[in-house]
Design brief:
mainly alpha
């Protein structure tokens, strides 16, 4: 896709009504990641900086929100699509390298490096907060997403032939999807939808 084409597409998405404020680039980035288009991720980020940036704090917020959207999308699209650090593997299998593609164009000041401050505080949640609290938060978020059918959906996973599927869902919703330190519940829901539709699994929405 040419730069002018992607710019036109992003401009259209940015003006889409009914999206939560400043969520257009999350939807665009996650959709392109799910479609195995890692080379387009930098265009989304750079367009977002040009269109909605203006200050160092705003640009840092955009970078963090894009990274968080791609992390959350990995829960439904698979980690290989979100992050694959080995270039040789990418050349052979064309696996998506969305987070690394984003990192390549992100100024150092806008990165959150290991052992440094993390706005999500997931490491704190993992090591310092009782798991029961995180899992309950995840269950509440799951119930919010699936509404009246949440108990039936979780029950189906528990009865899938192995209870491990339900456990995986509880861990995913608890530690990844229900963390709203960077993205709100509404924004997280749009991220999930943006990652599911390209996979043609609308029944999961």
């Amino acid at each position: 896709m040419s730069k002018s084409s992607i710019s036109s597409l992003l401009s259209s998405i940015r003006l889409t009504p009914h999206l939560p404020p400043q969520s257009w680039y999350l939807v665009a980035g996650v959709t392109l990641s799910t479609l195995n288009k890692p080379d387009e991720i930098p265009h989304v980020f750079q367009y977002a900086i040009e269109a909605d940036g203006g200050s160092a704090a705003t640009e840092l917020n955009i970078a963090r929100r894009m990274r968080e959207a791609l992390v959350k999308a990995s829960a439904i699209g698979g980690l290989p699509k979100a992050v694959s650090p080995t270039a040789d593997i990418l050349q052979r299998s064309q696996s998506i390298n969305a987070l690394f593609a984003l990192k390549r164009v992100t100024p150092p000041a806008l990165l959150d490096e290991p052992l440094a401050y993390s706005p999500t505080k997931r490491s704190v949640e993992l090591y310092d907060i009782p798991a029961s609290r995180i899992l309950q938060r995840g269950q509440s978020f799951f119930d919010q997403i699936y509404g009246k059918v949440s108990a039936r959906v979780m029950g189906q996973m528990d009865r899938s032939g192995t209870e491990d599927l339900g456990i995986t869902a509880r861990l995913m919703y608890g530690y990844i999807l229900s963390n709203t330190s960077v993205l709100s519940p509404a924004e997280s829901s749009f991220v999930l939808i943006a990652g599911l539709i390209p996979q043609d699994v609308r029944s999961s929405i």
